[in-house]
């Protein structure tokens, strides 16, 4: 099989719009694994709520969580690498969000914190339930014992558009990525899915040309362009399709299965 390391985005790629994993995708992944391919999830999610999909597929290996900011081994949940960011530099962004009543969360590799867990909006509660993760209340920076790897802002898309325009005029010290219509993520400047995938491939001794990646959104572009073959979902924005080498079906039509059959199993 030409591709030895296959990196899959989760939401909008591996999962359909109801956040379910199709039997078709599962079966193709099982066959790729049987033939010696190694599947990794490369996602904006936390390892905490992405590892269960690896377990559902019967896979060990690795999860590149938080858009590549934390690389975790599935079997023992060990954090193998993480890009910790400057937490105190987030203060102006947190002030901006508080002044405008914009929701945000702060993430270590496995844990998530919000401003006040008792005052979550209905929309935020629904989101966390949907993504199967429960946050705690944000402590003082000095009380953190683990590196902070991601700061996420969640609000309406037009409000995010305006916030990104304003933040673009500020001095930049983070990698600021639009990871979904309603999400913007802040990470260490070197943290990306592409860098995490490159680091893992080097660690596993897999050449770049034997890496395949499949994704659907702007935060996937770095891994699509790193891989020997980058495949965009048909539900991707045009800029993401332009960055890829090929396009497969949509996430609702098991496009991951189609790509794996075409490029790994044929």
TrEMBL record:
PROSITE patterns for the chain: COF_1
Keyword Hydrolase among UniProt keywords: yes
Sample GO molecular function, one term: hydrolase activity
Matches recorded under InterPro entries: Cof, HAD-like_sf, HAD-SF_hydro_IIB, HAD_sf
Key words of the record: Hydrolase
CDD domains per record: HAD_Pase
Keyword Hydrolase: yes
PANTHER family according to UniProt: HAD SUPERFAMILY HYDROLASE-LIKE, TYPE 3, PHOSPHOSERINE PHOSPHATASE
Protein's name in the database: Hydrolase
Native organism: Paenibacillus borealis
